[in-house]
Amino acid sequence: MVQKQYRHASGLGHAIINSRNNARRSQRAGPDGTDLYHEQRQPNWMRLQSVTQERDLDEFLSTAELAGTDFTATKLNIKILHQDQQNQYLLTAEQEVETSQRQQSHRQQLTVPRRPAWDDTTSPGELDRRERAAFLDWRRGLAELEERHDLILTPFERNLEVWRQLWRVVERSCVIVQILDARNPLFYRSRDLEAYVRELSEKYGKDKRNLLLINKADMLTVRQRRLWARYFKREGISFAFFSAAMAGLEDAFVELNIRDEVRQELELEKDLDDVAADDIHVLSVAELEALFLKTAPPTENETDKIYIGLVGYPNVGKSSTINALIGAKKVSVSATPGKTKHFQTIHLSDKVVLCDCPGLVFPNFASTKADLVCNGVLPIDQLREYTGPAALVAKRIPKEYIEKVYGIKVQTRPEIDGGTGIPTADELLGAYAVARGFIRSSKGGRPDESKAARVILKDFVKGKLLYSQPPPEEDPVEFNRATYFV
Question: Radius of gyration of the chain from Cα atoms?
Answer without folding.
Answer: 30
